[in-house]
Design brief:
Strand content of chain A: 25-35%
Number of helices of chain A: 4
Radius of gyration of chain A: 18 Å
Largest sheet of chain A: 5 strands, antiparallel
Shape of chain A: elongated
Oligomer: homodimer
Order of helices and strands of chain A: EHHHHEEEE
Number of strands of chain A: 5
Distance between the termini of chain A: 13 Å
Mean pLDDT of chain A: 91
Strand order of the largest sheet of chain A: 1-3-4-5-2
Chain lengths: ~160, ~160
């Protein structure tokens, strides 16, 4: 990832997209969120969703998986250019995680992040903090998931343990 | 679940506990959150966590799984007593999801929820809304995860489609 000093409010990260198959929706939900509208097509028809749809956690974890891969690609590209790669800390949590629309079978969700705040950490002035609004948008242009996350990022002058 | 009229602020739900084995931590993270401190014991030692620890999403999903089982047990117990079972809607999202401490190998997390608000829905007055603060506490008494969720619940006089 970039150093705090190189990150601008409004920067957009195109994280990647994921298509949710019926098998994957059911397999995820059987293991983690076995509610009838996530595991059973027939039962889902009479639920208020009207059809099988992905667990909201599944929609979030598809983002996580893509985000790890995105960071790796970015780091490799920076190394290939001979640039230093800034460290990034783990997320401390998420705010305002909203599942705005159901994700149905074969929906493709396009994930992106937009930087909405950057600042120096008050508790650890050697580090910065970056707040991102992440969204997932389906093939019809509807936002299905949205959340805010704040992460420690390195400063050019600072140092981080990880 | 109970009807809105039978839910009190301060009610506590003991959802259940889960122990995180090294194999489960790595298996989850390989699939969804393959950062080195979640998938590789040796690499984790030099990370700022100091040892292999569970993905925060894993800690959240262990809660989800236990919550679905908890609701089922509650519904079955109510039916066995000959009582009606109120419907409960899916969560619309989560707020203030915080991973406060790492979850290390063989940690046992005890999940509970406390009702912090109940009210009639403004948009759908036939339904109620219940806000719960959910927490997971490890065997040393440290809170490792905390979040707020708001869910539609049935009213005695109302009706819900699911």
């Amino acid at each position: 990832m970039k150093y705090l000093e190189d990150i601008r409010v409004g920067d957009v990260y195109e994280i990647g997209r994921h298509t949710f198959s019926a098998e994957e929706i059911k397999s995820f939900a059987r293991r983690f969120d076995p509610q009838h509208f996530h595991v059973d097509e027939e039962a889902a028809k009479t639920s208020h969703f009207g059809a099988l749809c992905a667990s909201g956690w599944h929609t979030a974890l598809a983002w996580m998986r893509l985000m790890v891969a995105y960071r790796r690609r970015e780091a490799e590209a920076a190394r290939a250019r001979g640039e230093p790669v800034a460290g990034i800390g783990p997320a401390l949590g998420f705010r305002e995680l909203k599942w705005l629309k159901p994700v149905y079978v074969d929906d493709t969700i396009d994930y992106r992040g937009e930087v909405i705040e950057t600042r120096v950490s008050r508790s650890r002035p050697g580090l910065g903090l970056m707040t991102i609004r992440s969204t997932g948008v389906n093939q019809s242009g509807e936002t299905v998931i949205s959340f805010l996350s704040t992460t420690f990022v390195e400063r050019r002058s600072g140092a981080t343990g990880d």
